[in-house]
Amino acid sequence: MELTGLQKQVLTRIQARFPIERHPYEVLAEAFGVSETDVLAAVEELRAGGVIRRIGAIFDSHRLGYRSTLCAAAAPPSRVDDVAAVVSSYPNVTHNYLREDRYNVWFTLIARSRERIEAILEEISAETGVTDILDLPAIRLFKIRVDFDLTGGPTARTAPPPVVKPAETSAVELTSDERELAVLLQGDVAGSATPFAAIAASLRRRGVDADEAWALERTREWVDTGVIRRFGAAIRHHETGFTSNAMGVWVCPEERIEEVGTTMASFPEVSHCYQRPIAPTWPGNLYTMIHGRSREDVETTASRIRDAVGLEMPRLLYSLKEFKKTSMTYFAEGEE
User: Fold this and answer.
1) Strands of 244-250's sheet in order across
2) pLDDT tens digits along 261-296
3) Which sequence spans correspond to the domains of the chain?
């Protein structure tokens, strides 16, 4: 899809900062010097063109009482699609990719407990016959910020966010009404000039005595306290020209993890940066998702990171195929 100047401006802004306001498109229109109708039309065109998957909340799973991990299965090359299909069949799996490595099927797994994660991995192993599966829960989170600048703006390094240790993150206690709001916010709130009024109406149909002001207040509070990690547009980045991405797997001395991870997170081309445990067959302990318009871009960024932190070049595991990419549905009926 060939993007207009306004579409590029709007998309760059709303990936992480969709206004949590009564009239969000009016707020955006004022920022860009256009009409509310123009902004609404731009967003709807981006949705119709498949660039925007949804607009809504990305919750911190640990703050909601869930657990998450990154997994990788060493599937026989001839059986990759079959193994991936079994993995993707679980609603607990949100992302599932084919990557260039012996560990070729990489997926994220979210569940109510660590025990359920382990049970799912055992089920996947039993059904596929693949016994070599890495289980790599995050130890430190240095960055999760998927913002693609489509305007040609500056790409200088930025101050990284605070470091988070997921295992030490406390869960919030939500009321039944707040759970209903969370269910709606993790969907797609686009399609209305007043999305929070629409959310309040949906809540009332669910038996929740709520108005627009309450929905706005709770949403802002969750963003401010980190319960919502990001409120914005989830995009299909391939549709915007960022056609190459690789997971950089680095080997870093334990005593330098905090320093190095913080530096890596300052690169705008890095959307995700984590410390994860090593395994007997897998020595990597720092992970960076690097994005670019070509493999050359990705490798150039990896080299810049290497020079900044003084480590050896990472394994660059390029995404070859997307089996599944969706958002987690928290508090779903019948979930395990």
Assistant:
1) 133-136, 67-73, 105-111, 93-99, 315-325, 244-250, 286-292, 270-275, 140-144
2) 999 999 989 989 999 999 999 999 999 999 988 999
3) 1-49, 63-162+238-325
